[in-house]
Amino acid sequence: MIIDDLKSENGHLMIGGVDSVELAKKYGTPLYVFDISQVRSQIRKFKSAFEKNNLKYQISYASKAFAVKAIYQVMKQEDVHIDVVSGGELYTALSAGFPSEKISFHGNNKSYDELLMAVKEHVGVIMLDNFHEIDLLSQILKQEKATTKVMLRLTPGISAHTHKYDQTGQTDSKFGFDVESGQADKAMKSVLDDENMELTGIHAHIGSQIFGTQGFVMLAKKMMEIAKKFQAEFNYWPKVINLGGGFGISYNEDDDPITADEFIGQIADELKKTNNEVPEIWIEPGRSIVGPAGYTLYTVGSRKDIPNLTSYLSVDGGMGDNIRPALYQAKYEAVIANKMDQPNEQTVHIAGKYCESGDILIDQQQLPKTKPGDILAMLDTGAYGYSMAMNYNRNPRPAVVFVEDGQDKLVVKRETYQDLTSLDLDY
């Protein structure tokens, strides 16, 4: 998000028509705030791009980015699919009333209990990731006298130009059936021979926080080539080709994300080169849907000034509510929410309160003059913030608030100290 695009009134940052400073007073800090109108807008941009290019499609929200009941209810309202990667995410989605037939179940080591749950809840499609999973699911389907739709997750040998831990499509990956070595052919035969599995398509995901279109175009081309190979060898043509997600967002001025129109337009051009029928195309955006819609509000506390060095400005949260800077060296930007009309006068390290020297949320941030009690708003924190939050140092996880059309609503309560000990037993 570009700071110049932020909206303010009377010197206060406005989020979804609501004063962020008042949100901090009402709900306390740290506080996750989501502008739901931005979430809806991004979904509709993806849909519009597909429709402009006359492609059959599904948008499947990658809910690992942010998984709570309220966001699943928004996805239901927007009539999209979702993908889950654990029994916990599946349970949350079902608890929110999300229709099971619009759920895809991902993961590289789904347990027996998770697969059984997926079968019993009639999940729309199970993404098969390895041979153990094929055997386990086959066993469950026979036991339950059930059938299910499946897709094969493939590793097509395409690397994305992102952080090494965000690359998932190359051959050396823990995910999926390798195409080059023949694993994908073996998996295809195994699934087609199982009368309880309906193979609906093939899937690949090349990484996360990707800015260029080249990787996606290469993936579309490769997946069509694989589909033609499967047609020749197994007389199978996929109903669906799932191209995964990974569309980058702008965390700071160095990031230059592609638009939905750009990448879907170029994918469509590649797909339409085939003489075959183009399958229904699925994508799995997560970060790009919720990331820019999220803000984290903190209260400024202590400060450490060191001669000839950058000062440390501490806030009342940190790596427990946003691990990405420590884990990925992810870069963010922030503003002082109650001083939007004041010029920047200093550059500081934004430090968290956790007992780790690496708990630095932002390494170098320009800000107006600050004092304890000011409200710092960290931008673009909607993805992989709450979903990766933890109780390190026995700090409670923050509350989550949705704002839309000038209204605010608490959707996740702040944890209490009592919550922290609720599962502890005496010795």
Automatic annotation (TrEMBL):
SUPFAM superfamilies: Alanine racemase C-terminal domain-like, PLP-binding barrel
Cofactors (names): pyridoxal 5'-phosphate
Residue list for modification N6-(pyridoxal phosphate)lysine: 64
Domain named Orn/DAP/Arg decarboxylase 2 N-terminal: residues: 37-290
UniProt: substrate binding residues: 287, 324, 328, 356, 384
Subunit organization: Homodimer.
Pathway(s): Amino-acid biosynthesis; L-lysine biosynthesis via DAP pathway; L-lysine from DL-2,6-diaminopimelate: step 1/1
GO molecular function, one term: diaminopimelate decarboxylase activity
Job description of the protein: Specifically catalyzes the decarboxylation of meso-diaminopimelate (meso-DAP) to L-lysine.
GO process annotations (BP): lysine biosynthetic process via diaminopimelate
Lineage: Bacteria, Bacillati, Bacillota, Bacilli, Lactobacillales
E.C. designation(s): 4.1.1.20
Similarity comment: Belongs to the Orn/Lys/Arg decarboxylase class-II family. LysA subfamily.
Active site: 355 (proton donor)
Record keywords, A-Z: Amino-acid biosynthesis, Decarboxylase, Lyase, Lysine biosynthesis, Pyridoxal phosphate
PANTHER family in UniProt: DIAMINOPIMELATE DECARBOXYLASE (PTHR43727), GROUP IV DECARBOXYLASE (PTHR43727:SF2)
Top EC group: lyase
Stated name of the protein: Diaminopimelate decarboxylase
Organism: Companilactobacillus farciminis
Transferase as UniProt keyword: no
Pfam families on file: Orn_Arg_deC_N (PF02784)
Chemical reaction(s) catalysed: meso-2,6-diaminopimelate + H(+) = L-lysine + CO2
Residues binding pyridoxal 5'-phosphate, per UniProt: 246, 284-287, 384
